[in-house]
Design brief:
297 residues; Phosphorylase Kinase, domain 1; 7-stranded antiparallel β-sheet
């Protein structure tokens, strides 16, 4: 939470469990406090330039989807109401509410399944790169002649490893079963595709195409739940349906805009990334805000 203030919750006596690229997670015993910051990551680097309000946008999106999909699969959310959250925190944290407003969730502590569960409905990103080489994605054969951004014959479940550091690695469903067990892998595949298909239809009704998305799951006791964020521009590829054309990369509401800018700077991706110009920050912020406006319409 460095762009909010200097470890404020730790100062207030709440231990930091994990500082992610975007979210900071604090330990409350059998519960967690998740604070979405305005940090932005690209190419495995956290950029020096935050995107104002981004954490609130990610939180608002996750809360919307948690509510809409809870009948398909339960999730770890307890509440995002600060009045309720403050009852769980020590009095020393009372001065922090201004920083936490709109970007904080109290959730159940889950045992994370170490796999990224990815659903793809369109050919894009790393999936398109793999298709060009092998005419398949994660062992799933695909027809000849598909173009970038082509709709797939049916949505695909393409899992990957979950790496806290470095890159995740795409794996086949069979490899996933060997890593986490056949029963759990089958439940993850079913839930991932069910949620994707629901969210894809919902997004279409709001003028958005959900090209692909990734979920994380965990166990609370014996119950499997969606955890972390859900269907945000950081975890998903959303396109404006009005501008969609197969054969090229459509304009998106995710951080691809930032990646494209950084690719043009000559940055080597091994050294500290450059600061973003103010106009790039503002244009990125505008994309996140437009996404939220459309999805909540």
């Amino acid at each position: 939470m460095k762009n909010l203030s200097a470890d404020p919750l730790e100062v207030a006596g709440i231990p930091l469990l994990r500082e992610g690229k975007v979210r900071d997670v604090y330990d409350l015993g059998d519960k967690l406090l998740i604070v979405s910051t305005d940090r932005l990551s690209a190419f495995d680097w956290v950029l020096e330039s935050p995107i104002p309000g981004k954490g609130k946008i990610l939180t608002a999106a996750s809360l919307l989807w948690f509510e809409l999909t809870k009948k398909i699969m339960p999730n770890h959310l307890i509440t995002a109401d600060l009045g309720e959250i403050r009852k769980q925190l020590p009095s020393s944290a009372q001065a922090l509410w201004e920083n936490l407003e709109g970007r904080t969730m109290l959730v159940k502590k889950a045992k994370r399944v170490d796999a990224e569960c990815i659903a793809r409905g369109y050919l894009a990103g790393s999936g398109f790169k793999e298709y060009k080489k092998s005419r398949s994605i994660c062992g799933e054969p695909l027809p000849e002649g598909l173009l970038e951004a082509s709709i797939l014959p049916h949505p695909l479940f393409t899992p990957s490893t979950k790496a806290d550091q470095g890159h995740d690695r795409n794996i086949s469903f069979e490899e996933l079963k060997s890593l986490i067990g056949s029963e759990t892998a089958s439940k993850l595949k079913k839930a991932t595709l069910q949620i994707y298909e629901f969210a894809s239809d919902y997004s279409r009704s709001r003028g958005l195409i959900l090209a692909d998305t990734k979920f994380e799951f965990g166990f609370v006791g014996s119950e499997l739940m969606v955890i972390d964020e859900m269907l945000t521009p950081d975890s998903s590829r959303f396109w404006d349906a009005r501008l969609y054309r197969s054969g090229s990369s459509p304009a998106s509401f995710d951080k691809q805009f930032i990646r494209d800018y950084l690719e043009k700077t000559g940055w080597d991706k091994n050294s500290k990334p450059p600061m973003l110009p103010q106009e790039i920050v503002e244009q990125t912020q505008s994309r996140y805000l437009q996404f939220l406006k459309m999805i909540k319409a």
